[in-house]
Amino acid sequence: MLLSPTWTAILYLAAAVCFILALKGLSSPKTARRGNLIGAAGALVAVVTVFLSVKLDNIPWIIAAIAVGSAIAAPVARRVQMTQMPQLVALFNGVGGGAAALVALLELGHSDDPWVRLAIAFTLLVGSVSFAGSMVTFAKLQELMTTRPVVFPGLPIIMAAVLLAAIAASVAVIFTSAIWIAVVLIVLGLATGVLLVLPVGGADVPIVISLLNAFTGLAVAASGLVLGNVLLVVAGTLVGASGTILTRAMASAMGRSVAGILFGAFRGGSTAGSTVASDRPVRSSSAEDVAVLLGYAQRVIIVPGYGLAVAQGQHTIAELQAALEARGIEVIFAIHPVAGRMPGHMNVLLAEANIPYEALKEMSEVNREFKTADVALVVGANDVVNPAAKTTPGSPIYGMPILEVDAARQVVFLKRSMRPGFAGIENELLFEPQTTLLFGDAKDSLGKVLTAVKAL
Amino acid sequence: MDDGIALLTITVLAVFVGFEVVSKVSSTLHTPLMSGANAIHGIILVGAIIVAGQAGDGWTLALALLAVLLATANLVGGFVVTDRMLEMFRGRKKPPEPAAPTTPAAPTTPAAPVASDAGTKEAGR
């Protein structure tokens, strides 16, 4: 008793429409959550349909594997700290790419059409690039390895050699359909993925996640061609296309080009920055001094960064905002498009602390307001306020739009140490006369400042 | 060959739909959108199930089941983590609206959902 091909096609069509509505819904804040649920419903329809429409053996095993996969992924996704969410997305993306490559590998034995084997070779290569690349981005974001670009002499030559070998192996797979060559192709794909992501600097990693997301989409679409499954083709292509647009949008929010991000480090080895703390003199001060600066200001602009999120200081900063507003001080938040680790990440983190939406200003509207601000309070951010992006053509972040905090009358940095930011570049603003530094964990410092403001 | 052309047609149309659907998104929503798209390609699970259901020998089955497991993690984890992100966007819009008008009549009713909302969020972390 299997579903007829017509019913199967109709149900797959329904699932595909759900996915389109999901992406459409996710494009607007009002409909985003419903959009995501529609997508999940579409996925459920599709999975039920495959069980009803194809004659399957090993069903208990399959259900067990689905149960185990859900039992691992759902609790992790529920419990992950919002600060670690980017690396979790990278991880999920990687395993999706890996699954596509495995499906293609196992289908190789069943294919007698060279066009199908072309799709198989494509899936093997792109799926394994996405898997390995995502694992490296995961390691970078989790800080299991250095977040700075990793370059070594001969990298471009090795990269070119691996790519040529991968193309040769793809051709061999198409004409011989030998399993061992397919395995070689997977290994070459894994190597390509690692080499592709290693030279990418920490701050650009989110854009690479988005790019690899589009890659996985394309691999899934190609595996749909292999299996003759329209739903996989549509869903994979949708993700591939929308992921490409999204990658470009993210890159332009940072003033970068996608090619520049991927290949920038190949060219300029000397701009890779440093992790060494500078020993130039700076003006550091106490929480009480900072409280006085803030408490007697009229307008304060807070620039939250990743350091705030890491320290879990969102709730403390919300209290500080309330305390300052109780003194009649105007407080707004300036949100850089890539504050946090991904575009929009900081909005999520501050929303979690119930900071009102109206207090969050995007970069384009807030930049002209720094001139009239008495204090710009920079909490755990560095690269997004670094004037080098405007003034130093050789800098790795040159051209990235920044929040112009240097225009404010006073600038206060809450920092853990003098260690440079994620991009590994020193910030000249720290040494300017109008700048005050308060060292320490962002949450601790905010707590001390808050107590001192209340005592004023 | 007709099948091939039909699939090609569908692919090309899907490319345009994909471009069109996300053409204007504010940077605030980039992260959830990426995460949602990420969940959608977890639908490779359908392919993995087909391959596992037709596996003849143990090796093939083992690899196919691994694919099923990985694809499930992508699909389920992707939708769940996206939902968690979006849950927070909803949280901040509610407080200003219901708080104002009903205060004199029944102060407990409007406060309850907001408070419990914040409570679960705290507990979840």
Give a written overview of the molecule:
The complex is a heterodimer of chains A (456) and B (125). Chain A is an alpha/beta fold and 456 residues long. In chain A, 59% of the residues lie in helices and 7% in strands. Chain A has 3 domains: 1-79; 98-271, no CATH class; 287-455, Rossmann fold. Chain A has 17 helices and 6 strands. A 6-stranded parallel beta sheet of chain A has the order 3-2-1-4-5-6. In chain A, helix 4 (85-107) runs antiparallel to helix 5 and helix 5 runs antiparallel to helix 8 (205-227). The longest helix of chain A is centred in the N-terminal third of the chain and has 28 residues, at 114-141. Chain B is mainly α. Chain B has a domain at 30-93 and 107-120. Chain B has helices at 2-21, 30-40, 44-53, 58-91, 96-99, 108-124. Chain B starts with a helix and ends with a helix. The model of chain B is unreliable at 91-125 (pLDDT under 50). At the A-B interface, helix 1, helix 2, helix 3, helix 4 and helix 8 of A face helix 1, helix 2, helix 3, helix 4 and helix 6 of B.
Average pLDDT reading of chain B: 75
Weakly predicted, low-confidence segments of chain A: 267-274
Overall form of chain A: elongated
Q: Please give the largest β-sheet of chain B.
A: none
Encode the helix/strand succession of chain B as letters: HHHHHH
Helix content of chain B: over 70%
> Helix count of chain A?
17
Q: Give me the oligomer status.
A: heterodimer
Number of helices of chain B: 6
Structural class, from helix and strand content of chain B? Answer: mainly alpha
How much strand content do the residues of chain A show? 5-15%
Distance between the termini of chain B: 55 Å
